[in-house]
Amino acid sequence: MNDKKISIAVIKRLPRYYRYLGDLLENDLVRISSKELSEKMGVTASQIRQDLNNFGGFGQQGYGYNVEHLHHEIGKILGLEHQYNIIIIGSGNLGQALANYTDFERRGFHVKGLFDINPRLVGMTVRGIEILDIDKIEDFVKLMKIDIAVLTIPKQNAITIANDLVKWGVKGIWNFAPVDLKVSIKDAVVENVHLADSLMTLSYNLITKEKEDALQL
Question: How far apart are the C-alpha atoms of 64 and 78, rounded to whole Å?
């Protein structure tokens, strides 16, 4: 792979490539051209070639892409050959839904612990994992060598717990709290996920479509 900086837009498209290629593999497709892949994904063939050329290209002129090889190589780029230990902090509806999502394990993300401050939730189990009191989190993180913490907690608690987690050795934070989270220690990586933002984007697109449809009447 080249040493040049890869744009965020390209990185965000890689999981889509991986997902679509996985679907093609399940349908026993051996090879595909950038044009055929573009028709399935709604991305131009030129964009696909440019994106993949950032990492070496992988295609052969006149042949296209070997689906299994490209799927494997994109998985390597995304770090999916690694195994990650995860904890979920905030074990309400969203936290439990994430814990129940078994597809994470196929990608190498293994939920090792669930935490909450609500005494009504502490002691419950989700897929065989007991929800522990938040007071036990520091020892658990250090003992289990947790790589990633998922936050589904109120924003006023997210900043404090995130900085504590990084001090205890957590390297990645998947943040669902409604705040753009930054941590004070440089070697941690944060991915902020704002579900409401996505819903508002959908609302904008619905309104825009309604206006366009009205103009066509």
Answer: 22
